[in-house]
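Appendix B, example 12.
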Amino acid sequence: MPIDKTKITKEMLEKASQCETAEELITLAKTEGFEITKAEAEAYLAELENMELDSADLDKVAAGTRVCYAVDGCGFKK
């Protein structure tokens, strides 16, 4: 069953980002009431390896704000 992403909190994301193995992430998910497969956990960890957010950016992502690292300001006109 797919995870309802609207039920994932900022705190859960912070905890998940601290997991170093798929097994750790699976255990964390279970404690939070979610079931994930090893393949899903590995895919999530692979995504995390390609992205590092500071706490301010993590707050923006958790709040639904667009985070942009593009030089042109994501194409927004001033």
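The mean pLDDT is 76. The chain has four helices and no strands.
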